[in-house]
Specification:
The complex is a heterodimer of chains A (510) and B (340). Chain A is α/β, with parallel strands linked by helices and 510 residues long. Chain A is built from 17 helices and 23 strands. A 6-stranded mixed beta sheet of chain A has the order 6-9-10-3-11-12, with helices on both faces. In chain A, strands 19-20-21-16-22-23 form a 6-stranded mixed beta sheet, sandwiched between helices. Chain A is globular, with a radius of gyration of 23 Å. The relative contact order of chain A is 0.11. The mean pLDDT of chain A is 90. Helix content of chain B is 72%, strand content 4%. Classes of the chains: A alpha/beta (510), B mainly alpha (340). Chains A and B meet through helix 8, strand 13, helix 10, helix 15 and helix 16 of A and strand 1, helix 1, helix 9, helix 10 and helix 15 of B. Strand 13 of chain A pairs antiparallel with strand 1 of chain B, so a sheet runs across the interface. Bound molecules: adenosine-5'-triphosphate and magnesium ion (MG). The site of adenosine-5'-triphosphate has 20 residues of chain A, from strand 2, helix 1 and helix 14.
Chain lengths: 510, 340
């Protein structure tokens, strides 16, 4: 046979106004193979995937599927060719149920009538496979981001396919969920499917992929078997330079004798989703991390502190002054800013350009003169250009709509928004979700510099190594309550994991 | 000390740099022209119809088209702000009626200035009622304002006992019909109002907040936009613009009544939508709104002059509206991705 490859991509070029996103990339994947597609934010991974999904047509180049040249004009064309896609930006309808979303556009029907029973049963099967415990009748809009991600995956699995393409499927998942998914990926591969797997979690790439293709700056710069590489070699290929480690300088510093009032003081706060009242304190210059599984209460606490949900009782003080956070607006005016974990629904404002998205949270008190009322585009543009350089946001200029940025770069714009909010208390949920290994370190440095400039920073993260990397102190949540606090050298992955699972005895003290 | 698996930057990323300022200016002009394709449609229509009926491009007729366009346009500017915020106001006929009636009631006793100020204040109050219902009591905007349309109309019918209140004031009437050459003063006022609305929407933090609410309300709220206050304020501003339309309309008619502007909300919405503003919110074009208002009043005027029966006028107007909207949505702007 001339060609074993189920998918063979040759010399694909894709351009957008002002950006050459793909400059002639190649990619091949065989039956029974898992291909890891890696690269920096904005390298062009999702662009290629949109082409394979039939959402966009390339400017130049060829796609071959099972030895035949194909030209997809619509997503249906791609599905007919046996390609099923899990997009980075979910394509779910929040107002429809889980079951309806999964079978949207390929309903199980007889004579034009949807067969509700069968749809429900098939949905339940898929949910069982993914070990996702939600009611098939529940509206997707009410699910957490992680569960929405699972529904998006279930939807891809519900179709007939030979090739499964997954764009950062684990970005929103917790570690155990990600492990489960990797198991499924491996099973699918051994049943003869071809899989293209995109992730910024390199441990997953090494755990599950047979072969790796590296994109850099719109080019495919390397491909070959996983066994030929180790993690640092892969990072070097992705970035095109020697990797360098992030060194945490603040860790171990003791803030308890600080005689300034804490930036944030929370007393006896009880909120929906918390089973016990919470007391926490964050000093100026300190990074407090909140760890714990999904639903453990840390997200609910952040929402209550940011004024998104009303606290039932308790007191919040900023710099020793009691504040009332009735709304996110009130919170921001009191010096509290929150970055949401849900970039698409709660983060980006798609009709505004990147500059406006960055400046939107700058509060009244931080604006001067004419800028109090007017947006003064010249001034804002230069502020954005400075941030763009500092945070290395990949965008040609400040007037680009945020929706056209790659996922990781959107995340950086939202962090730029946090910087411009000039808040004294920064609440950051999953700050590095979807960003590449290089940018992750830059974001840690950014968090550290926010703290150095005197902010009290709270980072809530499901990524345990991240907590270990950034935290001066760490509060671990389990089942709706804080179950332990770790500081200094006691902040280890093992200790956090033990506490998060409710195994208090196993925490070792250094 | 902790170490994370990862890397720190050693050198800057290569990026396709563009001469940002000039490119974005050229692109801005490009998108602006692309959005104003309606102006072209308008010119072609004028040219075609004037072949059948030369009176259509007579100075007197242009003047009366612009008079009508000014009234539709002023209320459409307020509507455009609301639509950009993802809201809608159907109470326009009621607001026009009660504000014009206020002016008519005040006029015999006070100056024109006070009468107009009174009308605008009533418009603001009506807008505030809508705003409170929508922003604070969380009623869907088109239901709340459908209700207040009946409320305001009902008040207008009660105070007039179903009749018409004549307006005698010569100055008030000429204020509404005065022209500078072929251009009515009220149309110049429309241009100023549209300019102000543009500035408000695109150059102020308030306007940015409105567009953010229209684009992604949840994200806007979490970013710290005071969503309820901004929505209420948008309704108040829109109420003032409807009252402004009411002032011009009552001057033109020399009277005010409950029925003076029935189904006028549809004209205002149509002008905005035909002008290239999508109903789903996030952005609004004011220049397009002015063009849309002119297109609309021109069309009904031309059909009148050509002697088309009024039922057929509905059919033709409806067709033009549908085609304009379809053309607009086929020609999707650069925000297609992400803005969905
Ligand atoms: N619709 C669009 N309009 C303009 N530019 C675009 C568009 N889509 C993508 N781009 C640009 O193409 C480049 C590649 O983006 P892509 O989303 O493919 O990156 P990615 O590799 O998936 O990154 P990430 O890891 O952050 O998801 C980026 O510079 C992005 O800004
Ligand atoms: Mg991507």
């Amino acid at each position: 046979m001339a060609n074993d490859n189920v998918v063979d991509v040759r010399g694909i070029v894709q351009t957008y106004p002002g950006v050459k996103a793909l400059k002639g990339v190649d990619l091949k994947v065989d039956r029974g193979q898992v291909l890891g597609l890696v690269g920096e934010n904005g390298a062009g991974k999702s662009t290629l995937i949109r082409i394979l999904a039939g959402i966009e047509s390339p400017v130049d180049g060829e796609v071959w599927v099972r030895g035949e040249r194909v030209n997809f004009h619509t997503p249906t064309d791609a599905q007919r060719a046996g390609i099923s896609v899990v997009s980075q930006e979910f394509r779910l309808v929040p107002e429809l149920s889980v079951a309806d979303n999964i079978f949207l556009c390929h309903e199980i029907s007889a004579g034009g009538v949807v067969r509700a029973r069968e749809t429900r049963d098939r949905t339940q099967e898929l949910l069982d496979l993914l070990e996702l415990d939600v009611d098939p009748g529940r509206l997707v809009g009410t699910l957490s981001v992680a569960d929405q991600q699972m529904v998006e995956i279930a939807r891809a699995l519900s179709r007939e396919f030979d090739v499964l393409v997954m764009d950062e499927p684990t970005a929103a998942l917790s570690a155990p969920e990600a492990q489960r998914l990797l198991g499924i990926v491996r099973k699918l591969a051994s049943s003869g499917k071809a899989i293209i797997y995109v992730s910024h979690h390199l441990d997953e790439i090494f755990a599950v992929c047979d072969v790796i293709t590296v994109f850099r700056d719109g080019n495919s710069v390397w491909n070959g078997s996983t066994s030929k590489l180790d993690e640092s070699a892969l990072v070097e290929l992705m970035l095109g330079r020697e990797p360098q480690a992030f060194v945490h300088t603040l860790c171990g510093q003791d803030y308890h004798d600080d005689d300034r009032p804490p930036r944030l003081r929370v007393r006896e706060l009880s909120a929906p989703g918390l089973r016990r009242a919470v007391d926490i304190k964050v000093h100026p210059g300190e990074v407090l991390a909140l760890a714990g599984l999904a639903g453990s209460g840390r997200m609910e606490l952040m929402g209550a502190l940011a004024g998104d949900v009303r606290a039932k009782s308790g007191a919040i003080e900023v710099d020793g002054v009691p504040v009332s956070v009735r709304s996110p607006f009130a919170a921001r005016s009191a010096g509290i800013f929150m970055l949401s974990e849900d970039r698409k629904q709660e983060g980006i404002v798609p009709h505004l350009d990147v500059t406006e998205n960055t400046m939107i949270s700058k509060p009244w008190a931080a604006r001067k003169g004419l800028a109090k009322w007017f947006t003064l585009s010249g001034l804002e543009n230069s502020t954005f250009m400075t941030l763009r350089k500092r945070m290395r946001i990949r965008v040609p200029h400040g007037q680009v709509l945020i929706g056209s940025l790659s996922g990781g770069n959107q995340q950086k714009v939202l962090l730029a928004r946090a910087v411009e909010s000039q808040a004294r208390v920064m609440l950051l949920n999953e700050p590095t979700r979807g960003v590449d290994v290089g940018a992750k370190v830059e974001i840690y440095e950014l968090i550290e510099s926010l703290a150095e400039q005197g902010a009290g920073v709270v980072v809530s993260s499901s990524d345990i190594p991240e907590v270990v990397a950034v935290a001066n102190r760490c509060v671990v949540f389990h089942a709706g309550r804080p179950v332990g606090e770790l500081a200094g050298d006691n902040i280890t992955e093992d200790n956090i994991t033990a506490l998060a699972l409710g195994q208090f005895k196993e925490v070792s003290h250094a | 000390m902790n170490t994370a698996t990862g890397t720190a930057p050693a050198m800057p990323v290569q990026m396709e740099e563009e001469p940002a300022a000039s490119v974005s200016l050229a692109r801005r002009i490009g998108t602006f022209l692309a959005r104003q394709y309606l102006a072209g449609v308008l010119l072609v229509l004028v040219a075609l119809l004037s072949v059948f009926q030369p009176a259509i491009i007579g100075a007197g007729n242009i003047n009366s088209v612009l008079l009508q366009a000014a009234i539709t346009g002023v209320s459409a500017c307020g509507m455009a702000l609301l639509i950009g915020t993802g809201l809608l106001d159907l109470s326009v006929p009621g607001v026009i009626a009660i504000s014009a009636l206020t002016a008519a009631a005040l006029l015999p006793n006070t100056t024109i200035g006070v009468a107009i100020a009174g009308a605008l204040a009533v418009g603001a109050l009506a807008g505030l009622i809508n705003g409170v219902l929508v922003a604070y009591l969380k009623i869907a905007s088109f239901i709340a304002t459908l209700g207040t349309q009946y409320l305001f109309l009902g008040i207008a019918f009660i105070v007039t006992e179903g009749g018409i209140v004549p307006i005698e004031s010569y100055y008030y009437r000429s204020m509404a019909t005065q022209s500078l050459g072929p251009i009515p003063v009220s149309f110049l006022v429309l241009l100023v109002v549209a300019g102000l609305a543009y500035g408000l929407l695109y150059w102020t933090h308030f306007g940015r907040g409105l567009r953010a609410i229209g684009s992604n309300e949840r994200a806007a709220r979490l970013a710290g936009v005071p969503v309820s206050a901004f929505k209420a304020a948008a309704f108040v501003i829109a109420g003032v613009s409807f009252a402004g339309a009411g002032v011009f309309l009552s001057g033109l008619l020399s009277s005010a009544s409950g029925t003076m502007a029935l189904s006028f909300e549809l004209n205002a919405i149509a002008a905005v939508v035909v002008g290239g503003t999508a109903l789903r919110g996030g952005r609004a074009t004011l220049a397009g709104t002015v063009v849309g208002a002119v297109l609309f009043s021109y069309l009904s005027n031309a059909l009148n002059l050509l002697g088309v029966a009024s039922y057929w006028q509905y059919v033709l107007t409806g067709t033009v509206l549908a085609v304009a909207v379809a053309a607009g949505s086929l020609r999707r702007g650069p925000e297609a991705r992400g803005a969905d």
